[in-house]
Design a protein that fits this description.
Blueprint lengths: L7 E3 L1 H13 L3 E8 L2 E6 L10 E6 L2 E6 L16 H4 L3 E9 L5 E5 L7 E6 L1 H15 L8 H6 L2 E5 L10 H4 L13 E8 L2 E8 L2 H9 L3 E2 L3 H11 L11 H6 L6 H6 L7 H5 L6 E7 L5 E8 L9 E2 L3 E2 L4 H20 L9 H4 L7 H13 L4
Parallel strand pairs: 2-8, 8-9, 9-10
Antiparallel strand pairs: 1-11, 1-12, 2-3, 4-5, 6-7, 6-14, 10-11, 13-14, 15-16
The structure holds iron/sulfur cluster (2 copies).
Length: about 375
């Protein structure tokens, strides 16, 4: 990357041209849009589909859209979905089989090439979440056959965060609101609302990103307002988490009383795992048609809050209590994830706080576990 190149920015027409350029290159452009009372991620036909003039209010167990007085397109924090919906889909057919009249069975793998996605508006915390899933699903001896091809073809346009939500704590996790150095991406944008309209500081992060940026109508800028907006956002996070030595903290909590307290509230619904951009567990199921001549194997998201998740043949579920299931989720996410994958499994997006129906707050639970560990015995 040429770090001496002058900084450039797009205006609203330039952003529209970016969406058009990506579509012309054959990408299915996915980005934020308003649907069903939330800002969701869906295919964009044009930049007009972005949530111009919408923000959100989030708190524990709460998510609401709110109107803004400006036309900002990226002035909202995380919604119910993350990019894993597209890279690691909730349901994926793995193979199907048909029995012919002579009784032979033909099995076909589902190996259709996936869409080439361009993700527009990836927050830095979610970019880190993609990196975490890269490590889990492509970083070992085997590349996940569903995730790998989708991820390999994806073009990532980051939108730095200037409007953190009430449940966000990426600043304390070192994952945002600005783009951390060395993050793999193709383009990075920073939106500012100026008297003459929307401005987007734009930087290329890959050769293809540079090619596309060179096609767009840009003008030079010093980038000062964009940088100030991101720095200001870091000071307006709704929450924080003390991330000091979480691995050791979690390892020492096996018998903590706090697990009983949280188990008294947790419904074991699994919402937190569904919305979490790093949770990756799946199960498989077979379905047949009524004749029994056609069968399919599907993979779908699973949750460690599901009773069957820890079912051992002949024994039953190893984690039958809410206490043991919540403890498994938190100690894996913040503790043993380090042993398994070399990083935390939490990027501070706050989704599990907003979408928990009873408002259980991961930052509050960590504070409580830390306080219990520090309390004198007796
Ligand atoms: S912590 Fe909240 S979202 Fe997660 S399983 Fe319990 S009740 Fe559901
Ligand atoms: S644990 Fe919660 S805050 Fe952390 S990445 Fe998952 S959903 Fe986001």
């Amino acid at each position: 990357m040429d770090t001496t190149a002058p900084l450039v920015e797009l205006d609203e027409q330039g952003l529209a041209a970016l969406v058009d350029a990506l579509r012309q290159r054959g990408y299915t452009v996915i980005g934020p849009t308003v649907r069903d009372g939330a800002i969701v991620l869906a295919e964009l036909a044009s930049a007009e589909d972005l949530p111009h003039g919408w923000g959100v209010e989030t708190e524990a167990g709460t998510y609401r859209l709110r109107r803004r007085e400006d036309r900002a397109a990226f002035a909202h924090s995380a919604g119910p979905q993350s990019w894993k919906t597209f890279l690691h889909p909730p349901r994926a057919r793995l193979w199907q089989a048909d029995r012919s009249e002579d009784g032979t069975v033909a099995v076909r793998e589902d190996d259709e090439p996936p869409p080439r996605y361009a993700f527009l508006g990836v927050r830095p915390c979610d970019l880190r979440a993609i990196a975490v899933q890269d490590r889990v699903l492509t970083g070992g001896a085997y590349t996940d056959p569903v995730y790998g091809p989708r991820r390999a073809g994806a073009f990532l346009v980051v939108a730095e965060c200037t409007e953190p939500g009430g449940v966000c704590f990426c600043a304390s996790m070192g994952t945002g609101p600005g783009l951390p150095d060395g993050s793999a991406h193709d383009l990075a944008l920073t939106e500012t609302v100026e008297p003459d309209g929307l401005h987007y500081l734009a930087r290329a992060g890959s050769p293809e990103g540079a090619d596309i940026l060179a096609e767009l109508p840009t003008r030079t800028t010093d980038g000062a307002r964009a940088r100030a907006a991101v720095a200001d956002a870091a000071g307006r996070m709704g929450r924080s988490m003390d991330a000091t030595d979480l691995r050791s903290l979690m390892a020492g909590t096996m018998t903590a009383e706090r697990w009983d307290q949280v188990a008294g509230r947790c419904l074991t619904c699994g919402n937190c795992t569904m919305v979490c951009p790093t949770c990756f567990c799946t199960t498989t199921e077979e379905v047949t048609d009524l004749t029994g001549d056609h069968a399919e194997r599907w993979r779908r998201w699973d949750s460690c809050f599901d009773l069957d998740f820890s079912h051992v043949h002949g024994t039953g579920p190893v984690r039958s209590s809410a206490r043991s299931r919540y403890r498994q989720w938190l100690t894996h996410k913040l503790g043993t994830w380090h042993d398994q994958f070399g990083s935390s499994g939490c990027v501070g997006c706050g989704r599990c706080i907003a979408w928990c129906p009873v408002g259980i707050d991961i930052t509050e639970e960590v504070d409580a576990l830390r306080a219990e560990a520090a309390a004198p015995e007796g």
